Each structure stands twice: as C-alpha cells, then as structure tokens.
Amino acid sequence: MNVVLTGASGQLGRCLHDRLPADWDLAGLTRAELDITDGRAVARVLARLRPDCIVNAAAYTAVDQAEREPDAAMAVNEQGARHLARAACDIGARLIHISTDYVFDGHASRPYAELDSGNPLNAYGRSKLLGERALRQACPSSLVLRTSWLYSEYGGNFVKTMLRMARAAGTDAPAIRVVNDQFGCPTYAGDLADAVIRLAGSDPAASGIYHYCGADVMSWHGFAQEVFDCAGRRDAAFPVPRLVGIAGSDYPSLARRPAYSALSCEKIEALGMRRASLRDALPKVLARLI
Ligand SMILES: NC(=O)c1ccc[n+]([C@@H]2O[C@H](COP(=O)([O-])OP(=O)(O)OC[C@H]3O[C@@H](n4cnc5c(N)ncnc54)[C@H](OP(=O)(O)O)[C@@H]3O)[C@@H](O)[C@H]2O)c1
C-alpha cells in the first residue's frame, strides 16, 4: 500500500516510522516538505504521489499558544485538514486524520462516545473540531481518529516535561505541583501508530469517527505519580520528587482544559484493537528516556 504521512517529524509521525508494516511504501513528509496550509502544494504533491492512503499527523498542537494565535491554529487544523480532504477525494485515496479529546467540554460523567456533541473550551479544540467538520464536508469517506494525552520518546510531552523537572530540581527541591482535577487517558503514540496501521488496513467501508486512547483514566497528578514510580523502578538513583496536587484554576495557563475527557473506544475495539494500559506502555517509553 502506498501511504503518504504528513507531519512526519512529530510524535505520531516518528512512531509510525518505527513501526512500518512490510507492505507499506511510505512517503513521510515533514512540514518543510509539505506545508498542509498550502492548498496548491497539497493538491500538487498528492496528485504526483497518488497514495492509496494519507495519514495526517500534521497539526498545530500548542494548546496554550493557540489562544494567542487562533488563526495560525485554524490554518493548520481546519484549512490544512480541508486541503488534504479535497486532494484525497480527487485522487480516491483513503484519508486518516487525527483529532483530539479537547473537542469536548469535559462535563460528561462517562467516557465520551464518537457521536457525542463537541463543545471545545479552547482555541486549539475549536480548530480541531472545525477540522473534523471540514473533512466530513470535503471527503465524507475520511476516517477521524480522536486520541488524548499523547506521550512518547519523541518531541515534547508531559512525560518528558516531568522527567526534566525532576532532574533539574534534584531530590531536595520543593514539591512539583501538578493538576489533580482534570482527568483523561494517557496514550502512548506508539500504540496510536499501531491503531492507525490497523485502521488503514480495515474494511474500506469503515469511515467516520473513531476513538483510540490508553486504557486508564487518571488526573495529570496521577499520571505524574506513575511516571515517577516507573522512573524510580528503572533507576534507583533517579531523583524522584515529591508531588503536590493542585486545582487547574491554580495552575497558570492560557487555555481552559476539560475537567474530564476520557474517550470510549468501543467502536475501534469492535475492529479487534486492544487498548494498552499505562503500566504496559510507560516502561517502554522510559526505557528510551532513562
Ligand atoms: N499531543 C497530544 O497530547 C495530543 C492529544 C490529542 C490529540 N493529538 C493529536 O494527535 C496528532 C499528533 O500529535 P503529535 O503529538 O504527534 O503532534 P506533534 O508532535 O506536535 O507533531 C505535529 C507535527 O505537525 C507538523 N506541522 C505543524 N504545522 C504543519 C503544517 N502547516 N504543515 C505540515 N506539518 C505541520 C509539525 O512540524 P514542526 O515539527 O515543523 O512544527 C510536527 O511535526 C495531532 O493531530 C494532534 O492534534 C495530540
């Protein structure tokens, strides 16, 4: 299968590269090689490569910065998605596009299902929800795969931030303050990459929205605790810090975030996909980082 991957140097893009199936002929394109905000370039490159499948791992992902530059977030997450969807339809390629739990407002008391209404609290979430809608309009056969709280050995993410803070502070430092009233599902980008690969090979009739995330629901504070427990088990000399839970309202950030954004994954599980627990996935990542 000929596959074009956009955003090839991001967390998901790099994890996909690491797991390439033998029958994939992949053209992984970084932003420098294909800027998805450039509609003409998208149409030209995809008409030349004529892939069977396009995986869009490109996105504007700076959640707080998006409050300052919502147009930049929109250009990538909404218009970029539309450009890809139009080009996918023109050449008859299957498009798999990644979206986020932040399309939801977090008022639910059970995991969000694929067809629950989106109501984003921040500019990033709005741009991603509009991207999903643009996709549906321009190419209804596209697949949207929503995920949450991505971490990996690559790029910038919560796990790497926690390790960096602990190393910088040492054991005598004051406690690290982590939000304990926002709940979601940490997801290893490698497991998400496996889900993308399975979806790409699924029945061509499969379309619409799917959810895929890690199996455990927890707060950022609980996630940090798991990271440090695992780091301490890997390396007895790791400077495991003290943690203090704080309210999201006491943590200075530009963007509001949902209090609860667990995703129900029953639809994708019905295709035979298994969700990994944090305790299975996290040690694989820490083995690359510690
Ligand atoms: N990270 C999370 O916690 C999280 C949670 C839920 C959903 N998601 C979604 O999951 C997907 C993958 O996220 P990720 O964490 O792998 O993202 P990431 O590490 O931030 O990677 C995004 C990639 O997109 C590229 N990019 C940005 N603007 C572009 C443009 N105009 N044209 C082409 N490429 C562009 C970036 O290039 P540069 O490196 O050059 O900037 C980067 O390589 C995204 O759709 C994201 O919205 C992420």
Structural features:
single chain; 290 residues; alpha/beta; Rossmann fold; 6-stranded parallel beta sheet; two-stranded parallel ribbon; 10 helices; 12 strands; globular; binds NADP nicotinamide-adenine-dinucleotide phosphate
Describe the secondary-structure layout.
Elements: E1 2-6, H1 11-18, E2 25-29, H2 39-49, E3 53-56, H3 65-68, H4 70-91, E4 94-100, H5 123-138, E5 143-147, E6 150-151, H6 158-169, E7 176-179, E8 183-184, E9 187-188, H7 189-200, E10 208-211, E11 218-219, H8 220-234, E12 243-246, H9 266-269, H10 278-289
Parallel strand pairs: 1-2, 1-3, 3-4, 4-5, 5-10, 6-9, 7-12
Antiparallel strand pairs: 8-11
NADP nicotinamide-adenine-dinucleotide phosphate binds next to helix 1, helix 4 and strand 4.
Task: Describe this structure as you would to a colleague.
With 290 residues, the protein is of the alpha/beta class. It has a domain at 2-152 and 186-215 and 261-276: NAD(P)-binding Rossmann-like Domain (Rossmann fold, 3-Layer(aba) Sandwich), CATH 3.40.50. It is built from 10 helices and 12 strands. The strands form 4 sheets. Strands 2-1-3-4-5-10 form a 6-stranded parallel β-sheet, sandwiched between helices. Strands 6-9 form a two-stranded parallel sheet. Strands 7-12 form a two-stranded parallel ribbon. Strand 4 (94-100), helix 5 and strand 5 (143-147) form a beta-alpha-beta unit. It starts with a strand and ends with a helix. NADP nicotinamide-adenine-dinucleotide phosphate is lined by residues 6-7, 9-13, 31, 35-37, 57-61, 76, 80, 98, 100-101, 128, 147-150, 155, 189.
